[in-house]
Structure formats: structure tokens, C-alpha cells
Amino acid sequence: MIPWLLATGDFTTLGGMDHANHALASFLARNGHVVHLVAHRVESSLASAAGVQAHIVPRPFGAHLAGAPLLARAAARQARAMGLSTRVLMNGGNGAIGTPTWVHYLHAAYTPDAAGPLRARATSSAGRRYYLARERAALRAAPLVICNSGRTARDVEAHYGIEHSRLRVVYYGSDASVFPAVSHGERATARAALGVRNGRLAASFVGALGDRRKGFDVLFDAWQALSCDDGWDVDLLVAGTGAEVATWAARARAAGIDRTLRVLGFRTDVQTVLAASDVLVHPARYEAYGLGVHEALCRGVPAIVTDAAGVTERYPKSLSGLIVPSPPQRDSLIAALRGWRTLAIEWRSRAETAGVSLRARSWDEMAAEIAAAVSAA
């Protein structure tokens, strides 16, 4: 069989982009291909799979910006060494050598508002310039640009003038065994494990807390206002990591809402957080797709999300009332949360119906579409 070369930062099952790349590599290997992975990190079970050859590139001092050019150069060297008979797919700026590329996040579509000390903000600014330059070169040279949503495809076309004929939208899949509908027993166990108080409902936020892209700052303001209402019977579970985790926990204590808003930190068991939840809140300012929202619906958990997220393209009309305008605003988020709370049982029923459809599309189906598109490019 024709060998493959895939290049991206990480092949793991943590995070949307990493999970999608892991799923593609696993699919190709299980279908008999020799798969070369150029990456900073490859999950051990994938690295040891038959047919997989991992080429690990270091991240000096753990810095993404320092590791990015090393990864791009290693990917280009490996592509040259393997020759023209190889099928190559790289993520974003890693593929500035005229090969197909897969866009999970478009740097040109969003300017980050980095948090943290001056050094971190300066690094973020320098990184953005590098990533934009690499992204521009890769997309303009690519014979095929695979996008994870229609929103991403429109952004690629608008920012870089890429012809529509070179764009292909392939939605993410999911693992129905990991994100099935939540049973009553699992919900009770998850609520107990996470300390959800009896008689209370649970909302959740899952995302990075290192910049403002995910909109947690707006959610925090909305939650502070809602918590002033003695009749508000919902607690918020915040799962995520980043430069501001400790800062947000301290702000919750200072505001006196640390009982109704709990920062859990980084979690590898997102499925458990969702099992304990009655609603997910994802007020993103920019989201190329939004796998966390997708997974919530797979679990039958309704998700309030901004129209900035590509995943809303997969919302049925029955859930359109949970979509709020972007950029997120405190008052519109409060209104959406109150509207959900009034009809919480009905929203869960609608989410459970939507989840059936999303669970039906597997990661393998996504991978097969991508493999066919790259093979035809």
C-alpha cells in the first residue's frame, strides 16, 4: 500500500485537533498503511501500533513557538526522503511545501487577547506573526485544503483568497463508546464524584483559560449576576487549564461565588464532567469547530454556544434557541441561561435526539473521507 506522512503537533485523544489527527492516523494504520507521524507527541498506543513510525521532534523548554519551526523543517525533510509516491497531509503551517493541508484553526480569523505577564503576551504576539506567515504560505501552495467546518472554509476563502474548488469540508466524528447518552445511574455517580450539591443543577464550561477566545470572562460576569438571585439553583463546573486558572479561582472567591462556581482545573475525564452536567456553556469568540460542544450533544447534554462556532452548522432547528450572537455579551448569555433553566427538561430531550445523529458519525467515517480526498488530490 502507498505510505502516508502526517505532520502536526500532537497525536493524542486530548483536544479536538489532536483527537482528529489521532483518529486519522489510527484509521490508516488499521487499514494496512505504513504511516509516518512527524510530531512533538504521539500517544504511546498509537506510536506502538503496527505500521506506525513516529518521528518525534522536541519542543525546546516545552515552548510551542520554539518547537513549531523544528517540526515544519522535520516534516519537509521527511516528505523529501519518502518521495513522490507518498500521500502527505499536514496541519496548517506545517505544510508550506505544496502538499494537502488540514485546517482545524485559522490564525487569520481571530486575534488572541493573551492573558498573563508581559513576557507571555510578547511571546504570543511573536508567535502570531510566525503562524500567520506559515499559514499563508501553506494554504496558498496546497492543492487541497481540508476544513473542519463551513465556517473555516469561508474564513480560508475570505482571508487568503483560496479558490472554492480547492476547499473540502469534512466534519469531525466521535466515539459513541466514550460519549454515549448519559444514563441515570452514570449521572448520579458523576455528580457525586464532582461534588454537585443535592437539589442543584449543574452547568459546565470546558476549555482553555489562557486567553479570552473561549469567552469564559463573559460567562464569569454572567454567573456573578445570576448568583445574586437566591432562586438561581445552578452550579457551574469549570474544567480547563491555562495561564489564568488560579486567577479565575481567586476571582470567584473574592466575588463570593466560589460555592456556585468551582474551577476544577485540567481534566482528562471530560465525559464525566458532561455526565454530571445539565447544560454546557461555550460562549466562544472564535471557534473553528467546537468538539466539546459536539461531545456534549453526543451525551445528550444541551449546549449554549455562540454562532461563532462551526459546530452550530450541525445544530438541528430544535436547538437553535441555544445559539447566541457573537461576540458573547453578558446579558444575552444570562437570557440564554435563564431560558434554558425554564425548560431544562425539554432542552435535554431535544439534545438527546440531536445526539443520536452526531454519535452515528464515527471517527473512522471522518478519516475515510479525508483519505479519499487526499488520494484524489
Please tell me about this protein's structure.
This protein is of the alpha/beta class. It folds into 2 domains: 4-173 and 362-376, Rossmann fold, CATH 3.40.50; 184-359, Glycogen Phosphorylase B (Rossmann fold). It is 44% helix and 16% strand. It has 13 helices and 15 strands. Strands 5-3-1-6-7-8-9 form a 7-stranded parallel sheet, with helices on both faces. The protein has a 6-stranded parallel sheet with strand order 12-11-10-13-14-15, with helices on both faces. It has a two-stranded parallel ribbon with strand order 2-4. Strand 10, helix 7 (216-227) and strand 11 form a beta-alpha-beta unit. The two termini are 17 Å apart. The relative contact order is 0.12.
**CATH architecture descriptor of the largest domain:** 3-Layer(aba) Sandwich
Structural class: alpha/beta
Largest sheet: spatial strand order: 5-3-1-6-7-8-9
Summed up, the domain count is: 2
Uncertain regions spanning at least 5 consecutive residues: none
Distance between the termini: 17 Å
Radius of gyration: 21 Å
Please indicate the percent range of residues in DSSP E strands (runs of 2 or more).
15-25%
Order of helices and strands: EEHEEHEHEEHEHEHEHEHEHEHEEHHH
**How would the global form be characterised?**
globular
The total beta strand count reads 15
Q: What is the CATH topology classification name of the largest domain?
A: Rossmann fold
Condensed summary:
By secondary structure, the protein is α/β, with parallel strands linked by helices. It is 44% helix and 16% strand. Helix 6 packs across helix 9.
